[in-house]
Amino acid sequence: MGVRLMVVDDHRLLAEALASALKLRGHRVLAAAAPAAGAAELVISRAPEVCLLGTATPAEPGMFDPVVKIKRERPQVAVVVLGPVPSPRGIAAAFASGASGYVRHDERIEGVERAIMKARAGEAAVAPQLLQGAFSELLNPAAQPDDEGQRLLQMLTPREVEVLVRVADGEDTRLIAAGMGIAPSTARTHVQRVLMKLGVGSRLEAAALAARTGLLDRAERPVAAYANDVETPTGPESPPAQ
Fold first, then answer.
1. What is the mean pLDDT of the chain?
2. 63 Cβ contact list (under 8 Å, min separation 6)
3. β partners of residue 32
4. The whole model's pTM is what?
5. N or C, which terminus of the chain has less Cβ within 10 Å?
């Protein structure tokens, strides 16, 4: 028996193609529309059995507000999210908002149809490993990457931020010193301070932490930003402050 459903996605062509494919499989597709301010209202007014809701950024705050609104007004509507290769945070956000399932954008039509049928039956329409990751995230929520990255960034001086970026780029002490116009011993001191402040024991750990928390994205800045903070390699060096 066919399912009464709606397809709502950022990409209208994708939504219409998916709707057409589902119609050919015997389902009644009520609408295929790009999301807008009235998307949730449209779903609420049409009251399908299942709504396929597309998103390109499942972990972005507020992305699933329409799901919350739909479930509040029409709790009987099962919402299945269509998204990219998911992270546990995105899966967790989808289910926390009231979604019944999560299907990858590159899933075959048979997989989408299975998710629709499961959602209508009141089952979780998501691969077991993704569901396990989502529950772990809900039970043990991690700090938002941007929040953690910002916290770490605030611990470092502008000079140390540049050192960290260079470390993440794979530069050794000699290259760091040459690129920043400082002596190798000063570069080593900066590196050690960065490791100490980040609470890691190696350059590899520092680079991994910076990438994982989004610190590197925030740290990008033009070299001109350090124009007034350039150390020269000539002359005796002062010992690092204790």
1. 80
2. 55, 57, 93
3. 7
4. 0.55
5. C
